[in-house]
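Sequence in, structure out. First:
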Amino acid sequence: MLAITFDTGMFFSIMLKAMRAKRVLEIGTSTGFSTLWFADAIMSGAGKPHIITIEASLEKIRLAEKNFVQTGIDDIIEIKQGTAIDVLRRIKKKNYFDFVFIDADKESMLEYFDLVLPMTRTGGIIAADNMLFPEHFRPDMEKYARYVRHRANVQSVTVPVGMGEEVTLKLG
């Protein structure tokens, strides 16, 4: 089970704290390692933190829930079980999320982006994992990078931290 690296977690922690993020959407929970980083970052400062995380695998959800309970953050996390596309179509929270993290099946990246962009507030960030590694993801991730960089209402760059992160800022 792939998880973000320590330096990626620290990178996102600093970013979320700097932008004073409180509402996070995560596509691909796995065992919840990245969720733990996000929770720690958004619990600092004022405001009620909330994370919605999406995972298809019940086995991974059980592991993640155990991690969330052990660390005492389960009260701010809402796990939605199912395929990400189906769950995203049901969420429909316009301009709600400060930060969206996409770390799921790479074949659906463009559709995920199109579904989460309206849910992301102006000035919010959409980040995609595995831009550089593992190498077998590279064709899908290069296609994703080209796609988001040609959008008029965003700015995007690949940051070579961890496995490579595409960081996309939603403009007004």
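Second:
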Amino acid sequence: MLGTLQILAVLLVVIVLTPALAHALELPGKMQLGKDEYLIVQQIYYPGFTIVGVAEPVGILSLLLLVFITPSGTAFWLTLGAFLALLLVHLLYWMLTHPVNNFWLADFKLAGLGARFFGAAPFGRSKAGAQSPTLDWMTLRDRWEHSHVARAALAMLSLILLVTAVAL
């Protein structure tokens, strides 16, 4: 069971890393876009990237289970580190990325699960503070883009820690 769960956890962390890394790699090109072009490009991410988002909570749960069944020692601490890094990836999404997604999607027609997911505001914030006159599209763009760089770095750290633990 331990080996199967390790393989599943590695697969889920890779799935979490993939879109975050894709977003991070797009950053240099997207930072050169004007407002109209940038806002058009943002619309391509929905719903495709939303589908892989389910890997985050499932990955967190698999790593948590793995922490509990991994024997004490170096592998345990590496697995715990992988869990904490993936948990931070998910928290960054809800704290930084998701409110900006809500702002980008304000005029976008969403239905069903997508509407419920993007309508969620677990930290009581919505629309990235869009009512604030000090937040312009470039501030929101920077928050969104840099949050994905941070998420990619943490997901990569999670993967490295997990693969190292599995290799022991």
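Remark: The chain has a mean pLDDT of 88.
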